[in-house]
# Entry
Amino acid sequence: INLNITGGNPPYEYNWAGPNGFSATTKNINGLVAGDYTVTVTDQNDSINILNITLDPMSLLAVTNVNELSNYGGFQVSGVDNCDGIANVVFTGASGTASILWSNGVTTATNETLCAGDYTVTVTDNLGCTAVWSDALTAPPAIDQATQIVSEISCHG
# Structure
């Protein structure tokens, strides 16, 4: 926390109090934990100003993986025209309850009925911190052409 003092009659004295018995007498403080801090600023005329500051906890939100739960011979979708892929987002460190939004509009951790293609999932915690992960689901190539071969069978009798 960096203070900007205006007015009064310098020099100033600073008396900080914070969580876990924190105290300091410097103008600026750092290396802090989340919580409520109070600084009392006194000028040379003994004028006092008290300021209360709350530091919110830092979010350690991270998407660690998107598990592709469907497997069709090494592909995540069974065919180019099929939408049977399934993926699940895994995340850690959310502060409070997290919300999930996939690029196709799904708002749950598990996203079902996915077609082949690129997807992005965004996880947001209650501090407003976000983590994003992109993933691609693949399908086997389509059959280009089917050919019918007819062989005449000759019968000698």
The two ends are 103 Å apart (CA to CA). The mean pLDDT is 90. Residues 62-137 form a domain with the Immunoglobulin-like fold (CATH 2.60.40). The chain has two domains: 13-55, 62-137.
